[in-house]
Amino acid sequence: MEGSSIPHYLIFLIFALGALLIGKYTPGIVQLTINRFMPNLGKEITNNFISPLTKPFQVAGTFILISLSSVWLKEYNALYSFFNPLIVLAVVIGIAWLASRLFQQLLRIYGIEIIRKSGLEADELLLVFETIVNVAIGFIAAIGYAQSQRFPLTGLLAGVSIGGVAISFAASKTLEQLFGTVVLYLDRPFIPGDYIRCSLGEGEMYGRVESIGLRSTKIRKAATGTLYIVPNNQLANAGIENITRGKKVMVLLYLDFTKKLIEREKALVQQVVKNSTDSVFGIDPGSTKIAVFDHDTIDQSRARVTFFILGSSENSIQLRKRLLEVANQSISKELKNLGIEFYLQEPNIYVDSPMTM
Q: Using one digit for the tens of pLDDT, what is the confidence trace for 129-141?
């Protein structure tokens, strides 16, 4: 727009508004691109990665477009110097969030299957690995942002290391508490609102976590209602029983068969389902109940399967639900090999159940 009488800041605002509108269609644009160049994998990629991650794609796409629009602010040095670092930061955070969610989907869709085919057990180590990768993504994003803003990383790291040595001698007790805070935030044995029981120096304590601070955690004692303040380094080393997270989720599945099963086939169904569910990590052992019965009105049979999934957090519950999907595929394959065809009623029914104390 050389020679245009429109001020460049106004052009930036127009492009930024356009970025907000176009950014909403980023998932569709990515989907069309994949279908164009990889038509055979387009549907699978869309179902597994694009549709579940609509929001991260929209956020990343919007901030990238706004960043491209910021070129119109370069002639306003003060304004550009103020807004550009903020825009770049937003782009880095958006891309890092998208990368983290993409890796999570990749791990839970393909990683679990690869691990099971290797004869290994897919368990909570997947969540630990996921956390490590997220930390790595965050670190790379921070380094990338620092490089884009020309921060002197070498001098900064050297200064931090020298300053860290000096501080460690002057405030070792405070640093111990801060490291305890880091452990609590990474390991997440509890969150504010959880009821916990822990053993401290003066005995056992039971109460509700009010807040987790930089140096200490506030716990409201159940019996007296008083507020107990515990240094985080003590909690990081203490045995903690989390009452709130001690829950299990009841799963209810219905398998509708295409014919009426004879007694031998019913026994095979019970055996296959029980073997498949018992092999899934996180299912309460011995909780699987299978009932195979005939319909009253149609010449078909139905199986009702119930069992309990154990989990300590939402992520672990989601992981076990994904493992259950893999088990469903295994059940379907085995029964088809036996000449028994069925279709699974969707969606699966999940009911939260409190843990018996």
A: 787 888 889 889 9
